[in-house]
Each structure stands twice: as structure tokens, then as C-alpha cells.
Amino acid sequence: MSGSIAHYDVAYIGQALKNNELSQVTLPASSLTECRGEIGNFTLSYQAEEELDQIQTSNIVINLPHQEELPVEGCLSLTGVGEEFLAEADGDKPLIIIQDYQELSAAALSQRGLKLALQAKSEDPAREVYYFYQAMRFMDNNDELYEEARRQEVIFLKHDLGELEISQDGEIFYSREDIELSLSGELVVAPELKPAAEVDRLARIFNITRGPEGYLQVDNIYLQPTLSGKRGLYVLGGARGPNALTYQQEEREYTLQEIKRNLIGVEELDEEERSVDDQKCVVCYTCYRVCPHGAIQRDEELNSMQIMPLACQSCNLCISRCPMGAITRSGEVEEQPQSDRQVIICENSAALAREKADFDPMAGLEVTEVPCVSTVKKEHIYQRLAGSEGDLLILGCISEACKHLTGHDRCEQVVSSAKSDLEKLDLDPERVNYQRLSPRMAADLSAYLTDWKGEVLQ
Ligand code: SF4
Ligand code: SF4
Predict the structure, then answer these.
(1) Strand spans (E) along 65-208
(2) What residues contact residue 450 under an 8 Å CB cut-off, 6+ apart?
(3) Which of 132, 342, 354, 417 has its CA 20 to 30 A from that of 378?
(4) Could you tell me how far CA 308 lies from the centroid of its own chain?
(5) How many secondary structure helices (H) and strands (E) does the chain include?
(6) 139 C-beta closer than 6 A to ligand 2
(7) Are 142 and 117 in contact (CB under 8 A)?
(8) Cα-flanking dihedrals φ and ψ of residue 34, to 5°?
(9) pLDDT tens column, 262-272
């Protein structure tokens, strides 16, 4: 890593936007390896030649081109044809423009198609120009372009799915109501737009979710579309969705304005802060996974999770999902365990066995469900025992059921070491116990708990 870390107003992942007021840096998406921190102070790690390097930035913009897919290999893309295309065209062949072949094209592609049709007519009014479409998409002056194209005798043919086919050699078959047509000529097709190739990896690095089509748009707000769920992270172009092409200019301007506003100062959205009790956190990553705003990261030194106050948007999902009750809001009184019989159970075994039992064998017990008992550390055991007069039972998986392969072994070792510590301190080692179960052992679970409760109550 380099010694001093440069700080920028904005880091672009992909293509930078033009502006003269912001200090900025551009990183290729493929080089990025990690993002830590929050709005105003993100740290990005990236691969620079042979070594890892870092920068700090107040804001991040992901701006990548869409991936384009053409329905027929070798046909021309509407986004790829320039002025030279018509200059070199064979005027004897009809020009065939197709939008919405498999799916509706963005309005910006309609605009390009209409302009291309008009340009072809202006260069050679006698040339046949066909325009196939499912629905004309209007933006800016598309309606005027459309009317003008009709006046110039561009032949518009509407199609629904299945009424238009392009063969592998580029021939067009059209059938709708009483029109049957087969055509060949110079074929220009609006491509299907797909999320940029790196979007999936970036979603993981920034810990934000993707929508059903794979774009990062799921977090976006309709009227402020380049915002992502993570404060200070903006999404444009092929990371944001097909409409990004249509409102490109507006979205760029809006994003730059937002960034400038952030540089004046960002306030916490809620006066109450959420914080993680590092003594209780078992680093199970549940909160990290559920936070819709990428506001949680791991604190390596404390070996606990950490909530970033400027990034947090106060939804409280993390609080409701934390299996250890380790996350609280400021001012909230921490609940102390009431029961003197506490059980920590693995969600892959004892929790499933509990569901299958005829009655709830854990009624009256204080139960904490964890994704894997391997996350339980000795300090958690001591804390549980110190907080009550009672006993603690940990129920892990049998080897075959353990999704984390050796999680059950690690927990057994932790419990056995805790027992020997208790013995050395002249305390009762039987206050903590460990038992293995499979998800199918509902009857054994009931019997075991009945015995355990009996012993505890003696
Ligand atoms: S969910 Fe709770 S225990 Fe799990 S990592 Fe987050 S704070 Fe820690
Ligand atoms: S309350 Fe928790 S889950 Fe919600 S935004 Fe804040 S940190 Fe994320």
C-alpha cells in the first residue's frame, strides 16, 4: 500500500463526468477490490499494477456502459452506426431499422432510429426505408421526428412479439393481420441492453442489492434515480438500467449537483445512533447481509461489526435480525436476560428440530438462534453466565448436518475450554454444556431438554 492516501471529492468507477470544479479520480471497475467507510470518507482499495493501493473519496459514481446484445450475429447495432454508414451505403438496398425486437427499446434508441431513417431519406429520398417497432417511445422531439419521417414516406410497421422474425442470414419475415412480407436489405437493429459485466461484483463490494434484471436500480428512488441505497454512491449508465440512456444528461447533472451538495456537509438522518456491543457480537454477518444501505462493516480490531452513522438510514432491520441482541439504539435500555436457562441454537439443526417437535421443547427458555455455533466465543459464554445465575446450553449440529463443515467441532472445543476455565476458578463447569443434534432429532431434543431443565432446577 502507498504511504499517504490521496483524498478526492469523487471517484468514478468507469467513465468520469466532465466538470472543472471537483477533484476526481477514475478507477476501472475490474481493479476495485474493497470499499470501506461512508459518505464523506470512503476508502477504496484497488489493484494498481503489481500491488494493492488505496484512495479516499467523499463520493463514488459507478458509470459503466451497458452490455449490448444483438438478436442476429453480424447485423448492425443502432448504437454503432455513425455518419459514414449512410455515406457508404448501397442505396439500391432498402434500409431496415428494427426497434423492440425482443423487448421494448429505450426511448433514446427510438430517437436514434428515427434520426437515422430521416438522414437516409435526406441523402436519398428514393431509398426505401422500413421501420419496425412495437411501441414508439417519446422523449424530447421524438414525436416531431416521427411525424416528419412519415411525411418523408418512411414505412412504419408495427409488430407484436412473434410477428417479426430475423433469420440467421438477416432476412426479415413479417406477418400481421393481412400483411405478409419478406425483406432483405441493410439491417440496423436496436440492441438489447444488459447490465454492465462488472455490476454483480460491484454490488458485492459496495454491499448493495441488485434488482431482478441485475441492475443496481432496485435501490433507486424514482424521482432521484441516480441515488443508490448507499449514501454518497451514485449509479449511472449500464449499472442503473435501460432508462439511463434516455435521461442521460439530466441524470449526470443531477448527480454532480448532489455531489457538490454533499461536500458542503452531510448530516446524520436520525439523532438516535445504532451501535453494536462488541462483547455480544459473534460476527455472524447477519446485520451486514440485511442492511439495505451498506451501512455496516467489520471492525477488524474489535472483531465486531460497526455501524456507520452517516450511512445508516434508521430502518432498524439490523436490530430486529441480530441473533445476539447486540445492536441497540442510543437511549435504548439494554434488556438483561431474564431467564436462568439460556440456550444458543444453530438455525440449521436445533432450530429445525424444534419446529418439528409436537410441542415447543424450549418454552420458558431464553433462546438465541445463530447461523452457526462456531461464532460463539468464550467471552460470549462468560458474559451469558455472568449476566444470570443460571446455566447455558449450546446446541450445534452433528457433523453431517453442519453447513460450515467444522463449526460444531470449533464450538465443542470452545465449550470444553470454557469448562476448564470455570474449573480453575472453582466455579461449576456444568453451568455450560454442549450438545449435537441433527434437524431430524426432534424427539431427542425434547428428551435432552427435559433432562437438562430437570438438572438445572435441582
Ligand atoms: S447480526 Fe449481531 S451478532 Fe451478527 S454480526 Fe451483526 S451485530 Fe454481530
Ligand atoms: S438501522 Fe441497521 S439495517 Fe437499517 S440502515 Fe441502519 S445499519 Fe442498516
Answers:
(1) 67-69, 76-77, 95-98, 129-133, 155-158, 164-166, 172-176, 179-183, 186-189, 192-194
(2) 361
(3) 354
(4) 18
(5) 12, 24
(6) no
(7) no
(8) -160, 150
(9) 998 888 887 78
Chain-centroid distance, C-alpha 452: 44
CATH topology of domain 274-329: Alpha-Beta Plaits (3.30.70)
The predicted structure's pLDDT at residue 222? 63
C-alpha cell at 447: 428428551
pTM: 0.69
Cβ of 432 below 6 Å from ligand 2: no
Q: Give the position, in ligand 2's atom list, of the atom nearest the Cα of 307.
A: 7
Residue 343 near residue 362, CB atoms below 8 Å = yes
Strand partners, 173: 165, 182
Tell me, using a 6 A CB cutoff, whether residue 376 lines ligand 1: no
Quick: pLDDT tens for 376-425.
Answer: 888 888 878 877 778 888 988 877 766 666 767 788 888 999 899 888 88
Query: 325 alpha carbon to ligand 2 midpoint, in Å?
Result: 14
At residue 38, what is the residue type? Answer: E
| Confidence band, pLDDT 50/70/90 cuts, at residue 220 | low
Ligand 2 contact, 307 CB (< 6 A) = yes
Mutation probe of ligand 1 site: the residue of 283, 296, 300, 372 with most atoms within 8 A of C-beta: 283
Retrieve residue 30's grid coordinates.
Answer: 475490474
Q: Where are the alpha helices (DSSP H) in 6-141?
A: 83-87, 107-123
Using one digit for the tens of pLDDT, what is the confidence trace for 1-50? 445 799 999 999 999 999 888 999 999 999 999 999 999 999 999 998 88
Q: Which homologous superfamily is 7-65+196-264 in?
A: FAD/NAD(P)-binding domain (3.50.50.60)
Which of 206, 197, 208 minimizes the C-alpha distance to 45?
Answer: 206
> How far is ligand 1, taken at its centre, from the CA of residue 293, in Å?
16
Closest CA to 113 of 91, 133, 88: 133
Closest Cα to atom 2, ligand 2: which residue? 318
> How far apart are alpha carbons 6 and 57 in whole angstroms?
8
Give the span between the Cα atoms of 22 and 9, in whole angstroms.
Answer: 6
pLDDT tens, residue by residue, 298-355 = 998 888 999 999 999 988 999 988 988 899 988 665 555 556 788 888 888 888 888 8
